Every structure is written in C-alpha cells, then in structure tokens.
Amino acid sequence: MPKPKKIDETKYVYAVSRIRAIEKRLLDKIKLDRMVEAKSADESLRVLLEAGYGSGDSDVKSVFEYESILKEEHNKVYSLLNELAPEKDIINMFLLANDYHNIKVILKAEFSNQDETSLLIEPGSVPANELKLMIKDRNMSKMPPIMKKAVEEAIDTYSRTNDPQVIDLILDKANYAHMKSISASLDNKFVNELIVTLIDLRNINIFLRVKNLKKSWDFLQKVLIPGGYIDTKVFIQNFDTPIENLVEALRFTKYGPLLEDGIESFRSTGSLTKFEKLSDNFITSYVKKSKLITFGIEPLIGYLMAKETEIKNARIIMVGKINNISNDVIRERLRESYV
Amino acid sequence: MYKIGVVGDKDSILGFKALGMSVFPVTSAIEAQETIDKIASMQYAVIYITEQFAKDIVSTIEKYKDQRLPAIIPIPSNQGPLGIGMMNVKKSVERAVGADILFKDE
User: Fold this and answer.
1) What pLDDT sits at residue A318?
2) Chain-centroid distance, C-alpha A20
3) DSSP class of residue A85?
4) According to the model, what pLDDT value does residue A56 have?
5) What is the CA radius of gyration of chain B?
6) CB pairs under 8 A, 24+ apart, for B86-93?
7) What is the rounded average pLDDT of the residues A270-290?
8) What class does CATH assign to B3-97?
9) For the segment B65-84, what is each residue's pLDDT rounded down to a tens digit?
10) Angle between helices A66-84 and A298-322 (to 10 degrees)
11) I need a surface site. Which of A337, B2, B46, B105 has the fewest CB within 10 A?
12) Per-residue b or e along A290-309, where b marks 16 or more CB atoms closer than 10 Å to that residue's CB
C-alpha cells in the first residue's frame, strides 16, 4: 500500500478563512426555531430564503419549490468546497454515497426495464450521466477500482441469482470500503476516525433493523460492514440474545450513552427514529471538534457535515409544515445544529 | 394490462409506489385536474385521488362517472378523511340497489 500522504495544512489558510466567514451564516437554533414556530409553510420557507437559500431573487411561487431549493443549496456547498479544497479526493469521499446510490438505481432500472432519471442524485464524484453510460456500455475502465469491482460483482451476482437485494448488499459494502480506502490514503486522524465512526453507527443501525425484521444471524453476517472500530463478531455473537447484551458489550465504548438512550426508545416503540437522530447528533458533536483546529481539512469537513445536517433539518421542517405536523413532533425530530 | 394510478400531494401518496401503482404528485387543483384528464385516456382502470383534491375538482370526476373506465375513487389523505369517499360508496349503493342498505342507521 502506498505511504499515506500527509495533508499540507498551510495550503488550507485561504480555504479555512473563507469557511470561518461563511460558517456564520449557518442556521442556528434561533432561526430553526423560527422556522418551526412559523404559522405556515410559506413563512418557514421565507426564513430559509432570508438565510441565503435559493438564488436570491425572491420570486418563489410555491412552497413546493423547497425541494429544488434544498437540492440547489446542496450543490452549492459541494461546488464551493471543491473550489476551496486543495485535495479534492477528501471532499469527493463524501459524494461516494450518491455515486453508489446512482449505480444501484441505474442497475435496477436496467434489470427491470424502467426509467430511472428522476431518482438519480447529483452531485456525485462521478456525474450520474457518465456513470450511466459506463454501465450501459459495460465499460467501467474509468471508474475507481473499488467501484468497478463492485459494479462487476453486482452484475454478475444478479445474473446468477436474480435477486435485486444483492445489488444493495454489494454496493453498500463497497461504498464504505471505498471511503475507508480514501481515508487510509490520508494521514489524518480526524478523517480516519470519522469514517470508522460512521461505519460503527451504520452497523449498529443494521443490527437493529435486522433484529426488527427477525432475520437470521447469517443474513446479519452478510450485511455488516467491515472496518469499524467494533468488530463485526461482537454483533453476530450478541444477535440471538436479548438486545441488552449488545448494550452491555458496548457500554464502555464511546457509543455507550448513545446506545442506552437510542435503544430504550427502540425497545418501547420499535422505531429507529430516535436512534438515527442520536447518531446524527453524535457525528455533529464529533465534527464540532474541528472548530478548534486552525488550519487543515477539518474545518471544511466540519462545515460540510454541518450543512448536510442543516439541509436535513430544513427538509424535516418543510415536510412537517406542509403536512400540518405539530411543532412538538417536528422539534422532536430535529438534529442538533453545528452552531 | 390495466394499471392503477394515484393522484394527490406527494407525501400522502408516495407509499403507493411500493405497491406497484403509478403515483402522480400534484400541488394544485388545476394540476390534479390536468393529470386526471391526461391519465384517464391511458391504461388506467382505477385512479385514486386524495379527498383534499377531489373536493375541488368534482366536475372533472363527475365527467368520468358514467364511463366504464377509469373508476375514480377518492381516498383520505394524510390530513384525515373528509367523508367524500364514503359518501360516494353510499351513493353507488343507492344507485345499484335502490336503497341505502349500508348506512341507513347513521
């Protein structure tokens, strides 16, 4: 394996200064509160527009445009970071999830003869239409090796089993393996730990969902993602026992408190809503550390994750408002914000 | 083969997609009307429409009442039922049997 390259922090002086300046425009708790408290979805949307969402001209005709506004904001974040970051790989690492989603959509659409265009997500580290062409022509030589191997494996396994789920299994695993391989090529503790944490949280989530579905442990074994801090064996060993055993096994890891809270509500309601919210908060509090770092990639990643959370929160509020969900229920689902 | 279509606000109807129906999210009564007119001439035998929109485009729905296909059926949206769907069932029963044999106690 090539020697991990050290990130040259001095290259980040300009980028971090820009980020620190625009970080101030993130939606804080007060603004989110205003959105929740607003009398109508229109008013909530106006708060978003005031905060710099949308293209600036205030001729938004209907609240239903919120979806395209949020999408556009998402694009803006990535194009800004791509412009600022000296090392594009690191930013692209967070776009891989979109790539793998797109690959799944393209493959499944092909196998079921349907049109997929509306389900593709931009931006990706590889543009969606390029992915589409490559897969259509079965010419994946330009794809990153991990991705290429996964696509080939998915096509091959599907043709033998006719089971569309294998596409998800193979590509989800590849997604995390790919992120992990990029982070391994960087000598940066912050990024490495972030990826490992994401994998752990995903695995706990998988564990709970497989338990909910009452599937067997060998299915669990197939879907768990290797590369986390918690060994996948821990999950498998504790699978056929009461859920408390997993909580007990992980009590003294950093996930102890998260599990206790999250699983409590999972047990009483059977729903993962609370656990997922706590997981997101966990990541937010982790990336908040980047606020203390003067120069480096960390503040950029912090901003990126903050923005992702913000857009998620904005979506929760808008959907809630449009469907007349009560403010309390909306607030219960909101993620902790970065600022 | 005939298909089933669902017209309404996106958050209410998206779940039907998982059942293999075609969903048509709309945001206004005019859009709902246009969508119904468009898909009525296609291979749709049943079109579900949320009551929230059905109440504003009664005339459009009436138009298809005496045609064999499509059957346009109002369904409650996620905002709760308005009673239009049930009312129609009642009317249809009266029309077929000649008397209200289902709800006469209410």
Assistant:
1) 94
2) 23
3) -
4) 65
5) 14
6) none
7) 92
8) alpha beta
9) 888 889 999 999 888 888 88
10) 180
11) B105
12) beeeebbbbbbbbbbbbbbb
Complex-level ipTM beyond the 0.95 threshold: no
Q: How far is CA B74 from the centre of its chain?
A: 3
Q: Choosing among A42, A62, A64, A67, which should be mutated to test the B contact, i.e. which has the most B CBs within 10 A?
A: A64
Output the average pLDDT for chain A: 90
Average of per-residue pLDDT across A262-285: 90
CA distance A322 to B77: 13
Instruction: For residue A67, give the chain B residue with the closest CA.
Output: B10
Question: Which residue ranges make up each domain of chain B?
Answer: 3-97
Nearest to A43 by CA among A72, A64, A63: A63
What digits encode the pLDDT tens for the residues A30-63?
Answer: 999 999 999 999 999 999 988 888 876 666 778 8
Q: Check residue B7 and give its pLDDT.
A: 95
Residue of A nearest to B79 (CA): A323
C-alpha to C-alpha distances, A91 to A46, A78, A264, A301, nearest whole angstrom: 30, 8, 35, 8
B40 vs A113: CA distance, rounded Å: 24
A216: left (phi over 0), alpha (psi -120 to 50) or beta: beta
